Write a sequence for this structure.
């Protein structure tokens, strides 16, 4: 099929195009409308009589005139058709979406083909726009992308708390350890667990135990920065990786966390339920052969907190 079409051949083509669900607009070289099919009438609310001889940019002020004219003039100069797709530019003109999926897309997504039209003299003195409604395709693709993103997110997070799961969290720790080795930036780790959690489960039941775990996770999420990595390490044990944070900064964070948990009161059948956490803090040192060493140091500090009465923060004594 040739890339240019004789304007005289367009009349019988338009009889066909009028009956299919695409927009057809023919413009002269001053961008004034000469052909305006029923699709355009129905979606714009502008009749063919009103649109005739009117500038496309007057009818649709939302069109980026500089971008569009460059696109058209390039197609005319090369004598080839040009395209715009919804992934790059959602639409050329603002039409409301009337598809059954209304609510997911207020405006019509569009693909547009730009066709230079040659007259019988061989001169390109008209341009045809074919506007396709691709809202269904676009919305379906975006829904699929959103679903895939959610699935990926679920694969990285613990189901009960919404914090990073152990597998993904350890991969973050390994990555940050490698970054520290390269750039020597400070990285600290806080590891903590809920004090006497078995007693909570035995006394109040597993549902209440789960609520306590979720509450600690919520408090942790509220206190961490966007650059931090908070995860559930297992059972009632949690971890927070603090990139760019030295040991004293991590100790301050841990103390804020300890205090926030201590102050939290849950309602259990009309009675107040309080709980505490014990925390260990360590920072990456040059003597550590791998990220596991940082975990071990923080875990030893946590053990000291438990041995000394719980509900306290202990710093790694090796630093």
């Amino acid at each position: 099929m040739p890339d240019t079409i004789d304007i005289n051949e367009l009349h019988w083509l338009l009889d066909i195009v009028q009956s299919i669900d695409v927009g057809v607009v023919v413009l002269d070289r001053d961008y004034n409308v000469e052909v305006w099919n029923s699709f355009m009438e129905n979606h714009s609310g502008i009749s063919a009589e009103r649109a005739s001889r009117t500038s496309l940019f007057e009818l649709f002020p939302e069109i980026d005139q500089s971008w569009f004219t460059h696109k058209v003039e390039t197609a005319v100069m090369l004598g080839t058709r040009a395209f715009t797709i919804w992934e790059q530019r959602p639409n050329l003109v603002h039409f409301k979406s009337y598809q059954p999926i209304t609510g997911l897309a207020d405006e019509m997504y569009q693909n547009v083909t730009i066709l230079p039209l040659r007259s019988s003299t061989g001169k390109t003195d008209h341009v045809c726009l074919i506007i396709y409604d691709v809202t269904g395709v676009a919305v379906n693709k975006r829904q699929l992308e959103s679903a895939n993103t959610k699935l990926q997110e679920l694969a990285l997070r613990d189901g009960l708390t919404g914090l990073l799961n152990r597998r993904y969290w350890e991969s973050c720790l390994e990555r940050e350890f490698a970054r520290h080795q390269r750039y020597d930036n400070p990285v600290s780790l806080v590891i903590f667990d809920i004090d006497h959690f078995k007693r909570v489960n035995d006394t109040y039941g597993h549902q209440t135990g789960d609520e306590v775990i979720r509450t600690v996770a919520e408090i942790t999420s509220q206190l961490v920065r966007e650059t931090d990595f908070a995860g559930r390490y297992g059972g009632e044990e949690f971890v927070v990786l603090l990139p760019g944070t030295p040991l004293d900064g991590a100790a301050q964070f841990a103390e804020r966390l300890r205090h926030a948990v201590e102050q939290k009161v849950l309602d259990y059948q009309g009675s107040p339920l309080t709980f505490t956490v014990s925390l260990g803090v360590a920072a990456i040192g040059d003597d550590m052969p791998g990220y596991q060493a940082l975990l071990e140091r923080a875990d030893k500090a946590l053990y000291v907190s438990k041995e000394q009465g719980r509900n306290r923060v202990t710093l790694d004594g090796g630093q």
Summary: The first strand starts at residue 5 and ends at 6.
